[in-house]
Amino acid sequence: MSSARMLTGDRPTGRLHLGHYVGSIANRVRLHQRYESFFIIADLHMLTTRNSRADIEQVAHNAREMVTDILAAGVEPERATFYLQSAIPEVGDLNTLFQNLITVPRLERVPSLKEMTRDAGKDEMPYGLLGYPVLQAADILCVKGQVVPVGKDNAAHVEVTREIARRFNHLYGEVFPVPDMLMSETPTLVGTDGAGKMSKSKGNAIALSDDAATVRRKVMGMYTDPNRVRADVPGTVEGNPVFEYHDIFNPDRAQVAEFKDRYRAGRVGDVEVKEALATALNRFLDPIRDRRARIEAQPGLVDELIVTGTERTRVEVRRTLVEVRRAMGLSSAYAQVRRRAERYRKAVATSA
Q1: 3-state SS, residue 193
Q2: Cβ(36)–Cβ(6) below 8 Å
């Protein structure tokens, strides 16, 4: 394993699904074998778009589900440090210090923030969402993360982190590594309804934890070619979610190629193609289900991993914050004031 540190993670908003697996989890499973890996449960980031009391009350449950899904997908607990963001208040201190190293116009140029505002159904961008990349910089740099897996859509966020690290080092001395981005295609998986990417909130997702019957039901209800009213009508394969899933999850390439030829020629029905997809997906998910069952058979295991990881991470973050305050001169400022106050107290006591 490399000595370099990797920081990655998710917001605890619910169980993970096939879209998460394709977009990030599969990559993390590979990378965590190579790097010292920190997995953030980013509940403070969740508050930028979901901050009701009901949302917050679900954090603990969703955190357990999220970590369980990640472990079930193949991340080994002894090679990963999971931590709850809100349980480390020192990250907020670092965020406050970083806010002065970036400008509002620079943050307004981060393209994904407007998308996040729109997707959250908000008319205006919350202050916290504008500062999302700054808090993300605190997340990465608080553990001195050196590599960050990122897709093209989120590269602009990590570029802000790189700028903040360089700016801090220029002003106060070399404290932070400038993290490298581990670029990946992070393909977007279309939802079962064919309307945009897979999302639990849209009800078009297949969860990693779904049982075989649920997967089959969802697959059989998937959107296909709307112009194909009968099995003998030639159909369109390109842009058809059923075939997109076959391409990703069905290892029987000969079967997929045959289905495509027959579908284009009007010689196979949607039911047969979907049945084969349900079988392929369930074969793919079976090992994940088995690992999840073993984890769930040990109540409290995931909680222990989160607590142990959070305590370990907080030690790291406190060490980083001490170094930051020392480099900036903030520690000496209060020390000077305190020494003068102590001399004053002694003088008052002597004259009394």
Answers
A1: coil
A2: yes
- Cα pseudo-dihedral 251, 204, 71, 48, rounded to 10: 140
Question: pTM, whole model, 2 decimals?
Answer: 0.90
> 307 pairs with which residues across the strands?
none
Range of the domain at 60: 5-190+299-336
Specify burial of residue 188 (Cβ count, 10 A radius: 0-12, 13-18, 19+).
middle
Are the C-beta atoms of 349 and 121 separated by less than 8 Å? no
The answer to whether 48 and 188 have CB atoms below 8 angstroms apart is no
| 141 and 289 Cβ atoms separated by less than 8 Å | no
How many other β-carbons are positioned within 10 Å of the β-carbon of residue 298?
9
> Are 13 and 79 contained in the same domain?
yes
Task: Quote the distance between the C-alpha of residue 104 and its chain's center.
Answer: 24
Q: How confident is the model at residue 115 (pLDDT cuts 50, 70, 90)?
A: confident
Residues 321 and 65: their CA atoms lie apart, in Å, by 31
Q: Which tens digits make up the pLDDT trace of 320-342?
A: 999 999 999 998 888 899 999 99
Q: Which helix (H) or strand (E) holds 56?
A: helix 53-57
CA angle (23 as vertex; 18, 24 as ends), nearest 5: 105
Q: What is the CATH number of the domain that holds 316?
A: 3.40.50.620
Residues 265 and 248 occupy one common structural domain = yes
**CA-wise closest residue to 106 among 156, 151, 150:** 156
Beta-sheet strand order (sheet of 147-151):
80-84, 36-41, 5-10, 147-151, 180-184
Residue 64: C-alpha distances to residues 71, 84, 149, 295, 306 (Å): 11, 11, 22, 11, 8
- Under DSSP, is residue 137 helix (H, G, I), strand (E, B) or coil? helix
CB 146 within 8 A of CB 6: yes
